[in-house]
Amino acid sequence: MTRTPLRPLARILDARARGENPKAIERENIRKRHEDMKDRARARAEGRLLVLGLFFFCAFSIVGFRMGMLATSEAQEPLASAPGAAIAMQRANIVDREGRILATNLDTYSVYAQPPLMIDPVAAAEQLVAIFPDLEKERLIKDFTGNRKFLWIKKRISPEQKQAVHDIGDPGILFGPREMRLYPNGRLAAHILGGSGFGREGVSAAEVIGVAGVEKQFDDYLRDPANGNKPLQLSLDLTIQAAVEQVLYGGMKIMNAKGASAVLMNAHTGEVISAASLPSFDPNDRPRPPTSGFDPSDSPLFNRYVQGVYELGSVFKIFTAAQAVELGLVNSNTIIDTSGPMKIGRFPIGEFNGKNYGKISVADVIVHSSNRGTGRLALQIGAKRQQEFLDALGMFDPTPFEIVEAKGGVPLKPKKWGELSTVTISYGHGLSTSPMHLAAGYAAIANGGHYVSPTILRQNGPQYGPRVMSQNTARQAQKMLRKVVTDGTASFAEVKGYDVAGKTGTADKPKPRGGYYDDKVIATFATIFPAYDPQYVLIVTLDEPSIVAYGEKRRTAGWTAVPVAAELIGRVAPLLGLRPRLEPEAGAAITLTSN
């Protein structure tokens, strides 16, 4: 800063020349300097006071705003909470193809205790046991009178139970809001939905997470707050699912089967309209997984149509015939010698019940379900081409069906695919797949030759994948399957008004530790309908069926799975919007004559 001299020489000389006192000039300059210093000090003080005033104004405004919020909010118990991300709530709904609710949310409460705040722990424990009989009175008293600061009593209670607990009146028993997953249809489509449970939990919220089925497969979508108003729409039809489960349950009981499964799939879109596995469970009260035993199918949690990987038997024969036609080796009228003996190495290839069909057409090989006939076709095809065809049908990988259990349905194929495996796999032995794999394979025949991925999500229009066979081959295969119903092993599958085409398959059931049972089978009927314009594929599988008919115990699919499938088609075809095609009745035998 530049300072002005108190005795400027120019002014001093001028004052002396005029006879004035030079000291007056110095005194005047000192006075002006002091006044400037006072003005600057006053300005600094005023600025500091202004900043301090603004600070106090903001502080008191924030405190007043917070006091206003507290005065207008509902009082709550002060609870300690661990640091971390907020618990996500509001899981999206799951609906069927018509928008009907399959899974939704229900607001409820949890009840917990803070023993240090309790007035009469013993009386509170006695009254809680009266409300919740599954609680142990002695354990509650021990917890309430011990050193515990917090414990859960029930993580999910009904409104009636909440009122009853509230009436106890103990300040140490408190409630927390809860959102629980509700499946209003109970057991219906249980294996598709899977179920849910609680993830991270707090006294003011609980995180609902999927534990199985589509709940787990689409967990990220369902938990995303942005999708709270956008439900997950499945391809299932709730009405058809109910009919399928009802008929399948009745069929399982009549056929004395241990379990059963059914898959109904649109052959053009890949949409699974219905999928059922029995025995089932209620996802509202999902049982715990088994901790012992060697057979997973003993548990109701076992999903038979994707996890049930078995040799499915003669239902595979149509794939062999279709590939032989596709390669130009035969057509449906080509004669095949099915007479014996037939051996691959030291292993004989025989027919069911020792039959010998002689020389028959390829179509009749399928109609009579000849092992030797399909085996000889497979030898013409060869192992490499057979593997390529089955791989194109998706028989070597888990199905892309969108539930987490589908990943566990890994097909079992031979380590060495030699000539023997080529023959046995041609008639459904040596390669283990699930009913869902089979549905995708038969869909390719039904839709004219395209592979279609099974899906649980609603689709818009056909979803054709790669072509695996020509339309001509698919048409010939459809006619062979239709002939199985009209002339072969699936005669019980005829449904009036709906031309049904399909193939039966009966395979010995494998033991969990290796080998096969002598008296237990997996009976399967794979069908497409209506045969004149195939739209749907239906796979029905029964685990260990056995009935007595005409004085004999019968286990084959023609006697067990086929009648169940026929009843299913008769029940669901009208629900699918398929109109029956009835043959015109013959005219009355009346002759008009004149008198």
UniProtKB/TrEMBL annotation:
Residues 89-223 form the Penicillin-binding protein dimerisation domain. PANTHER family: PEPTIDOGLYCAN D,D-TRANSPEPTIDASE, PEPTIDOGLYCAN D,D-TRANSPEPTIDASE FTSI. InterPro entries: Beta-lactam/transpept, Beta-lactam/transpept-like, PBP_dimer, PBP_dimer_sf, PCN-bd_Tpept. Residues 277-299 are annotated as: Disordered. Pfam families: PBP_dimer (PF03717), Transpeptidase (PF00905). The chain crosses the membrane at residues 49-69. Keywords: Carboxypeptidase, Hydrolase, Membrane, Protease, Transmembrane, Transmembrane helix. It is found in: Membrane. This is Penicillin-binding protein 2. Residues 261-555 form the Penicillin-binding protein transpeptidase domain.
